Each structure stands twice: as structure tokens, then as C-alpha cells.
Give the backbone structure.
Amino acid sequence: MASLGKFGALRTKFAGLVDFVTIYIAEAHPAERKHFSGNFDIATHASMQERIEAAKTLKENAGEILDGCPILVDCMDDRANLAYSALPERLYVVQDGKITYEGGIGPFFYSIEDVDSFLSKQV
């Protein structure tokens, strides 16, 4: 969630010009792995309902940053995650059904600034 503020600013900048969607995929840092202290206490999802509840936690904690941004939830077979190599996070631009921008895999190659630059040239 470290980049959510930047993502919110990007959404604000391109409001009315671009549609944004967030897809909640498998939990990148499940609680049982103890990767981070102070992280959200979300275990590996054992059911679709658990994944939906985790997405609701994201929505609630993001507050206004994701207000009005649809959050879709990947199926338990992780088909969106696998199709887009999205774990733990990734940005795409899809225009007329075709991928026109594929960002690097986060957190190290995830660049909201690159998406901003790309979109600025498109609109």
C-alpha cells in the first residue's frame, strides 16, 4: 500500500480521461510468513470469500484514494495474476482491448511516474 498515495494522485490527474481498475490478487505478504511487522494481518486466502474480505480491507484502508475505483477480485485459480504476472503489484494500460503499457513488477520496478508519462502522451 506504500504507493497508494501516488496512485490516487494519478487517478485524480487523469479523472474523466482514463478509467482505473484495481484487481486484488493473492496476498503478497500473508501474515503466516511474517515478512513485515505492523503489516495487515491477512493470511493466505483459503476461499474466495476470504479474498473478497481482504479486498474490502484494502478498500476501507485506502479510503478516498480508491474512492470510485472499482476493485475486482481475482479468482482462486489466480488467472488474472498469472495472465498479467502481477504478483505482488503491476501497472498496465489497456486501450481498445490491447495492452499498450506494461509496467515492471513491483515493488522495485513499479513506476507510477512512468505510467503518468505514458498517459500524458496519450491524452
Observations:
- The CA atoms of residues 8 and 65 lie 5 Å apart.
- The mean pLDDT is 87.
- The chain is about 35% helix and 10% strand.
- Residues 48-62 form the longest helix (15 residues).
